[in-house]
Amino acid sequence: MIDRPRASLRRILEDLGSTVLDVAASPGELDVEVTGVHIYDPLDELLLPEGGILLAVGVDRAEQICALLDAAGPAAGVVVKQPVDVDELVRAKVLETGVAVLGLTRAASWAQVAALLRSLLAEGDLAEPGEAPADDLFALANAVCALLDAPVTIEDRSSRVLAYSGRQDEADPGRVETVLGRQVPERYRRMLEERGFFRKLYQSREPIYIELSEESINRAAVAVRSGDEILGSIWAAVREPLSDQRQRALADAAKIVALQLLRQRAGADTRRRLRADLLSTVLAGGKDAAEAAGRLGVASERLCVLAAQLSGGSHTDAAHRESDRQRFCDALALHVGAIHPKAAAALVGSVAYAVLPLHAGGDEEARAVRVAESFLVRVGPRHAANIGVGRLAGNLTEVARSRADADRALRVLRAREVSGAVAGYTGVHFEALLLQLSDLAKAEEQAPTGPYERLMAHDAEHGSELVATLRAYLDAFGDVNAASARVHVHANTFRYRLKRLAEISGLDLADPDARLTVMLQMRIFGR
């Protein structure tokens, strides 16, 4: 076995990039080994081990930084939120103590950077690019197969197959179907749930034996867990209960699989967080956008931003919803990456953003809409979602505008309460403006006025439907026959209601400005 080099401060800074952490003051070389991440608490005695990174929460003045450098002892670095107050005293103290001062971007939370650094340190000491991960799950599955003398699958909490051993042809048709589809078929999963096998599996810390129907081979299974968290399970197709020796072997194998799953999850989470942070920087379009785009490998000119969001959730559990969002974002990244090698996508909050480079042609937004529509067609059976498309950004400084456009287009689709729809910003521009006006009216606590206010008050007091009558009339462009049919009354009755609403409200329906005013109030106040 070859030991990998320990994580150095320089290596961590290279992996995160200056968009997340930047060097504010350095004692020189940054090859000091990093051993852990610690959070500063002014109420506790500071006992920092050698090589620790100290997150200086709440520290922002030069004199505080100097005092902390004196107390930090053999630390590798002290992290302070940007902008960092670095003067000559701080620089001198950095040289004296040999502890670097790092600046954390204002957009990042302390919890986020703590989790990010700890994940990086837990990733097998930052494996070199292209290095194969140790303890491959398929190799583990084959090892368990040899120990138990039975074909094995390793599955996650949703019964998706993460890895499988050889000799699957010795199992039953259900196992073959599971391996081919990389997912336990729904009918088998439902049967296991109804018979209480999943509950028994997840409640036990020892392997359990499951007797199935005559046409199926029985199973021995064990939950893969980290503490009280269930990470997945191992399933062996067996014809009789396991011996005590093989029971212990399966239980021990579950611990090894748990370590591998945690290692994989840490690596995947770190890469996703880095991607999300870098893409957020690109979408902000600030001074760091160019570096972030370079690290992501995305284009810097002629870009369209897509904002995609799941429109419904079948799961009430927060973890399942987050898992659905991440799978949806991964599918979007794969889709845009297949269209252009310099495209990128990442999940930011509940929205999956994609930056899509487009060749010149004059119809870039329409082409981006078609890309989004083709993506929704592909994922439609699995994910109900909407996508907003921003206008073309000529360069990185205009990407923030394209992102705002995409967000507004997506909001219009949410307001329409539709699913599986795509909207380009130019196509829903007016609706987006009305929503912005509605926000402004709510923020300033404005209320309807004039004829519209009087009609609403009359309806509330008398139980009449004069506002609905007016809306039908305006929507029908003054066609009384069409408007009366919409509200299911006789045309003469409708004419009488129009006369009454004009008398009560003082609205002159012959005045185009008066009609426009009341139409806008209806849309803005949403009554």
Description:
The protein has 19 helices and 16 strands. Strands 11, 12, 13, 14, 15 and 16 form a 6-stranded mixed β-sheet that branches. It has helices spanning 9-16, 62-72, 88-97, 110-121, 137-148, 173-181, 186-194, 197-203, 244-284, 289-296, 318-339, 364-379, 399-416, 429-443, 450-462, 466-475, 480-486, 491-505, 512-525, and strands at 21-25, 36-39, 52-55, 77-81, 100-104, 152-156, 161-164, 208-210, 219-226, 229-237, 301-310, 344-348, 351-357, 385-389, 393-395, 422-424. Helix 2 packs parallel to helix 3 (88-97), helix 14 crosses helix 19 (512-525) and helix 16 (466-475) packs across helix 17 (480-486). With 527 residues, the chain is of the alpha+beta class. The model is unreliable at 1-5 and 123-135 (pLDDT under 50). It is globular.
